[in-house]
Amino acid sequence: MTHKDIKKSSELLPEKQQLEEEIIEQLEKAELAHIVETLPVPVNNPGVQSDFVSTLDKHQVYDRIEKIFLAIKNEKRETRELALLLKKYAVQSGNLSRDEMKIVKEQFIDLLKIAGLSIPLIIPFSPVIIPLMIKLGQKVGIRILPTSFYDDKESE
């Protein structure tokens, strides 16, 4: 690789980062209904029948996907709020109100949950293991998912 090739590849990196930032910005501005409508639909495979998909109609699937997207968006907002509070904590040498400390603790726990769920993704059969973990957690009263993924009714 010549010096010119290295220079060209290093020039492409900021362009790629800028493109990714533009895509993220467009996704944030896009309406959720439009995002859900443009999701790729899996090809029907006659040899594989999913009972879950066959029992749900199109609107139920869209509603579930919409809830997932809203929960992810809410977690993103809460994580940004956590970053601001941690910055404030560092600048003010540890002076946060009780409410702010409660927010920091809750969001930190949510981040640990997300990190914990990322571990099974590298394990074979993760599409089976993760839902199983969530169901088992529900049976014993442990919330595996971050708080944004639960309805207010469930948390009471």
Structural features:
156 residues; mainly alpha; globular
Count of the separate structural domains: 1
Tell me the distance between the termini. Answer: 61 Å
In DSSP terms (H or I, runs of 4 or more residues), the helix count works out at: 7
- Low-confidence segments, given as residue ranges, are 1-10, 42-53
How many DSSP E strands?
0
Backbone shape: globular
Helical fraction: over 70%
Structural class: mainly alpha
Strand content: under 5%
Order of helices and strands: HHHHHHH
User: How big is the Rg?
Assistant: 21 Å
The average pLDDT is 75
Main beta sheet, described?
none
Could you write a compact summary of the structure shown?
With 156 residues, the protein is an all-alpha fold. Helices cover 72% and strands 0% of the residues. Helix 4 packs across helix 5.
Folded structure, characterized:
- With 156 residues, this protein is mainly α.
- It has one domain.
- It has 7 helices and no strands.
Please specify the SSE layout and strand pairing.
Elements: H1 3-29, H2 32-37, H3 51-55, H4 58-91, H5 98-118, H6 126-140, H7 152-155
